[in-house]
Amino acid sequence: MNASLPAKAVAALTEETIFVTQPHLAPLDEFIPYLRRIWDSRVLTNGGPFHQQLEKALCEYLGVQHLALFANGTLALVTALQALRITGEVITTPYSFAATAHSLLWNGIKPVFVDVDADTLNLDPARIEAAITPQTTAIMPVHCYGHPCDVDAIQKLADNYNLRVIYDAAHAFGVETESGSVLQHGDLAVLSFHATKVFNTFEGGAIICPDAKTKQRIDHLKNFGFVDEVTVVAPGINGKMSEINAAFGLLQLQHIDAALARRKEIDAQYRELLRDVPGIRCLPDAGEKRANYAYFPVLVEPDYPLSRDALYQKFRDHNIYARRYFYPLISDFPMYRGLPSAARGNLPVAAAASAKVLCLPIYPTLTSDNIERVVGLIADS
Ligand code: T4K
């Protein structure tokens, strides 16, 4: 015991570390037979059997028509924009992970930031129209935290102005509304299977598209533009998912329902324990029929005794690594902040949310005791 440290600090040193998430992993033993098949066949990549099986299995699980696997979600976003030949200006949200807007810059497209809705923190359809110019070609909304955007209002605007819609659905694996999978909306939707996501293949991603012709173009684009040994139809990229990742995805899929069920319990426990804590507001769902509980964001309001950043630091002092997703806003990063649409006055709702939000730990192996520990620190301020 270190005599020079106060008792509280010593206690914190011995507390188990809790991160905002922990990757969900199928048992290692179950993965060995998959590895053996890869070793035996020596097919490591380039659309091998596991890749084909995972595409099929995910279409069935998610209830979508066509899906192209990628090495990660960011390459999938970059390729989705290429697939639809998007140019000029694209309307998007500042309240997301950097990859959303970065995919536009990688395509030489100008992002135009539009503010979010205060209840869902998703792109506010009521503000989109004013941002449309003759250069606008598409809208890239994000189903933030897995909560569905107002897909009908967005599609109506897109139809009126002849715009394409590409959803960044990185958080929205398995989410359903009354009309079925939320991933069916838009011209394309992009998933991430990163380690931190609800469904992970270590790294990975996918584009969901409604027709076979678009899927074929995407498949060409993710393989350098090759159609056959001698024919290259586009300046494609290497976006392919390897056989190891695809095989792992097939195994992970067998365990996903149990993982989602546990996430649902954790979400319910947090909501119950936080219900009467003054100044802490849980984000409501956005009308999902089946949610995925990908994140557990709370908003630290002015009547809470600590600022959001003080609470964030208090957690860290107790080995709990909650995260401020999404702070700073994308529009505040140096490569975007000079854009007229990045001005703070244009994005008041997103700016306020970014200053208040804290994402609490949520992942299937998080114990009830640890949830109580997290809430205990919030309630005891
Ligand atoms: N669009 C949206 C809306 C996104 O949120 C993302 C990714 C993308 C597009 C791009 O998709 P990808 O290209 O990534 O497929 C994390 C993830 O790296 C990122 O994938 C994710 N969004 C973003 C919201 O969160 P960081 O910087 O918070 O990651 P990191 O490494 O700090 O991880 C958070 C915690 O998770 C760690 O404190 C511990 C735990 N962890 C993480 C990793 C990577 C593990 O326990 N094991 C691990 O392997 O960005």
UniProtKB/TrEMBL annotation:
CDD domains: AHBA_syn. SUPFAM superfamilies: PLP-dependent transferases. Its EC number is 2.6.1.33. GO terms for molecular function: dTDP-4-amino-4,6-dideoxy-D-glucose transaminase activity. Keywords: Aminotransferase, Pyridoxal phosphate, Transferase. The keyword Transferase applies. It is an enzyme of class 2 (transferase). The keyword Transferase applies. It comes from the Bacteria. InterPro entries: DegT/StrS_aminotransferase, PyrdxlP-dep_Trfase, PyrdxlP-dep_Trfase_major. Belongs to the DegT/DnrJ/EryC1 family. This is dTDP-4-amino-4,6-dideoxy-D-glucose aminotransferase VioA. It comes from Paraburkholderia strydomiana.
